[in-house]
Specification:
8 strands, 43% helix, globular, Rossmann fold, 287 residues
Length: 287
């Protein structure tokens, strides 16, 4: 895995394909390679160069190192755009990753060719505030819940009832979630990233071409909170994907991928023209 140095921090990233760069930012507790299950192959087939990376806190933190902040990850994204993507990229984020992308759009608008914001919000309501606080307190206590409990709780929060009520599908999900639980140190490092203030006012300054993708059965970032973000950003496209929850990009990847490509291809040129106009996206560089 290649590394890039951003403000003295080494960030590992992965590249796939050739074409206009698309940088993908994952949500809390999940590594960047989750995108490789469904979204990366679809984007590569469509002629894009896709960059994924692990947010801070996914790899074990050095002893005594401070927990990462959203500002830290925003800085990492900015560094990746400048040093790996050539100075400009399409941005895709989900959940906490969408919040990071939104903050990049506010602070560094020149770096974004466009943005897709999945399962997002611009403020935290009473229930999500309580949920984030409860989880942060649980993980800070040092208690490691049994993997089956963690799996079932995560499934209940993140999957659609259509999946939960499908005997075969839910068994597969529970097996995967129980087999690969996020380490306690990751949860300790990243859970507090879910807490945000009211940023809707700041998002009204965003000028980039944007699309918000909401998932109809999402309990963590429900559609009405997604809609608030779309309404705050001038000209933002809003799409609601039915029959999926917070993990909509994994539950209904074909529907999500179709919307991603429709949005990106509407901004980009057709495949042949992209290559002819590659000067619009500076060549990738290394450090």
């Amino acid at each position: 895995m290649p590394l890039v140095s951003v403000d003295g921090v080494k960030i590992g990233y992965s590249e796939h394909g050739e074409g206009e760069p698309v940088l993908m930012v994952m949500g809390t507790g999940s590594p960047g390679h989750v995108w490789e299950l469904h979204q990366v192959p679809a984007l590569v087939r469509a002629g894009y160069r896709v960059i994924t990376f692990d947010n801070r806190g996914i790899a074990p933190l050095a002893y005594g190192a401070p927990k990462p902040t959203v500002e830290d990850i925003v800085g990492d994204v900015v560094g990746l755009i400048r040093y790996v993507c050539g100075g400009r990229a399409h941005l895709i984020g989900t959940s906490m990753g969408a919040h990071v992308v939104q903050e990049v759009l506010v602070a560094h608008p020149e770096l974004a060719a466009s943005a897709v914001l999945m399962a997002t919000r611009g403020r935290q309501d009473a229930f999500r505030t309580a949920l984030a606080d409860a989880e942060a307190r649980l993980y800070a206590s040092g208690v490691q819940p049994p993997p089956l409990y963690t799996a079932t709780a995560k499934a209940l929060q993140s999957l659609s009832p259509h999946t939960l009520n499908d005997e075969a599908a839910v068994r597969t999900w529970l097996d995967l979630l129980e087999l690969f639980p996020p380490p306690l140190e990751v949860l300790r490092a990243q859970t507090l990233l879910e807490s945000i203030g009211d940023r809707l006012g700041a998002y009204r300054t965003i000028a980039a071409r944007c699309m918000v993708l909401a998932f109809a059965d999402d309990l963590i970032t429900p559609p009405h909170l997604n809609r608030e973000v779309a309404d705050a950003i001038a000209g933002c496209r809003y799409e609601l994907v039915e029959r999926c929850g917070h993990f909509g990009y994994l539950e209904r990847p074909d529907a999500v991928n179709a919307l991603l490509l429709d949005f990106l291809d509407g901004i980009s040129t057709i495949h042949d023209e992209r290559r002819m106009r590659a000067h619009e996206f500076p060549a990738k560089t290394r450090t």
